[in-house]
Amino acid sequence: MRVTSRLWAPHRAASPACCAYAGTAALTAALMALSALASAPALAQDAVAGEQVYVQCATCHSIDGTTRTGPTLKGVFGRKAGAVPGFRYSRAMQRANIVWDDKTLDAYLDRPQQQVPGNTMPFAGIADAKQRADLVAYLQTLR
Ligand code: HEC
Fold first, then answer.
1. Is residue 129, in this structure, part of any structural domain at all?
2. pTM
């Protein structure tokens, strides 16, 4: 009785076609390395666009674990709201009882005050759904 162990080929992931767009290839590769999403190139492309949207957030939110006006967004995906140690959240955010995922982040970034009434983030929201989706894809890469 022989069982074949060649059900998948580990070295066939990289296709030469990936290098046709040299302009964005380096950034895409960097983001894919940062994320656990290497098998989802479409999502990585969204994340590249989302990094541009994030420019609006960067004055207040670091991606390296340090505190600015707002708590760091490093590791925000999957984290409970109001949970960065040492950051002084509003009571509203502390009591929000939300876990940040694609749905809750999308709703919060659409209308922060509606999703978490009384929170103290001085930001009105992003009306464009595509921009929010790209941004959330980018936030997901911040591990
Ligand atoms: C002018 C400063 C400022 C800007 C700009 C800003 N934020 Fe915030 N953000 C804050 C502050 C302050 C808080 C904490 C609010 C509270 O405690 O009520 C916060 C909280 C958050 C939280 C909850 C974090 C947690 O640990 O629970 C998320 C998520 C978030 N912001 C995402 C964003 C994103 C994404 C953008 C860009 C689209 C953005 N913010 C723009 C200041 C800002």
1. yes
2. 0.78
Quick: pLDDT tens for 49-67: 999 999 999 999 999 999 9
Q: From the CB of 112, is ligand 1 less than 6 Å away?
A: no
CA of 121 to the centre of ligand 1 (A): 5
Please enumerate in sequence order all residues whose Cβ is within 8 A of that of 42, keeping only pairs 6 or more positions apart, or say none: none
In a domain, 12, yes or no: no
Res. 17: pLDDT tops 60: no
Question: Residue 122 sits in which domain range?
Answer: 21-139
Q: Provide the CATH number for the domain around residue 75.
A: 1.10.760.10
Helix, strand, coil % over all residues of the chain, rounded to 5: 45, 0, 55
Report yes or no on 125 lying in a domain: yes
